[in-house]
Amino acid sequence: MARPGTRIIQAKLVLVGDMGTGKTSLVLRFVKGQFFHHQEATIGAAFFTQILSVSEATVKFDIWDTAGQERYHSLAPMYYRGAAAAIVVYDISTMDTFARAKKWVQELQKQGEEDAVMTLSVHTKLCFLDTVPDWLVSCLVYLCISCLIMGGNPKLVMALVGNKSDLDSKREVQVEEGEEFAQENGMLFMETSAKTAENVNELFYEIGNTLLMLI
Ligand code: GDP
Ligand code: MG
């Protein structure tokens, strides 16, 4: 329960990454403090909430765990729309999942850009009551895309997570590889273990802290 006068923010957070990387396990560790060796594949909607005290504030996370869409390597718009943060998960013991994580980052960046362009086009049309010629709208949209490609989607806080750090003896992805990719893409980076709980609370704390600094 938040103390009276405490600043409270609500943040939608989505988890993406290949099946089996431990997305559901990370959420269950964070929300319930539990871990299952035979975690069942997520089917249907998977939505969790958790409250975390961050500095002098309280962050209420609305967590959307991807439920089967990993299979199709793309996300339904309802998952990422309005998201304040995204966690992209790979498994440090499987190189393929790291390659896929990079694709997920591109996917999130692309969807953020498309959303912004769509919003801008609609707003331009609404503001000028359709008196704006189409070519001008196209120019504005083009400008917007260029800015976004250069600067990325500044609103979405993204974290790259190498999960299963307890499997160090089977490691295929080096810490430096994760760090470097995260840095290049302006993401937070952490290696976690849903099994031992290493860095799980720290991950959500870091995300909460970054969100607080942005608003
Ligand atoms: P998801 O498909 O990404 O949601 O992955 P799950 O959470 O269903 O986990 C897939 C499998 O990996 C399950 O058997 C989990 O028990 C296991 N797993 C998840 N996290 C860890 C971890 O940190 N360490 C180890 N050793 N196994 C994990
Ligand atoms: Mg799952």
SSE blueprint:
Elements: E1 7-17, H1 23-32, E2 47-54, E3 57-65, H2 77-80, E4 85-91, H3 95-127, H4 134-151, E5 157-163, H5 175-184, E6 188-191, H6 200-214
Parallel strand pairs: 1-3, 1-4, 4-5, 5-6
Antiparallel strand pairs: 2-3
Helix pairs in contact: 3-4
The chain binds guanosine-5'-diphosphate (GDP) and magnesium ion.
Magnesium ion (MG) binds at residues 23-24, 42, 65.
Keywords: Nucleotide-binding
GO molecular function: GTP binding; GTPase activity
Please sum up the structure shown.
With 215 residues, this protein is an alpha/beta fold. The protein is built from 6 helices and 6 strands.
Low-confidence segments, ≥5 residues, pLDDT <50?
149-153
Q: How are the strands ordered across the major sheet?
A: 2-3-1-4-5-6
Measured as a percent range, the helix fraction is 40-55%
Radius of gyration: 19 Å
N/C terminus separation: 22 Å
The count of β-strands is 6
Mean pLDDT: 83
List each distinct ligand once: guanosine-5'-diphosphate, magnesium ion
Question: Given the C-alpha coordinates, what overall shape results?
Answer: globular
Put simply, the count of helices is 6
Order of helices and strands: EHEEHEHHEHEH
The fraction of residues assigned to DSSP E strands is 15-25%
Largest sheet: 6 strands, mixed
- Structural class, judged by helices and strands? alpha/beta
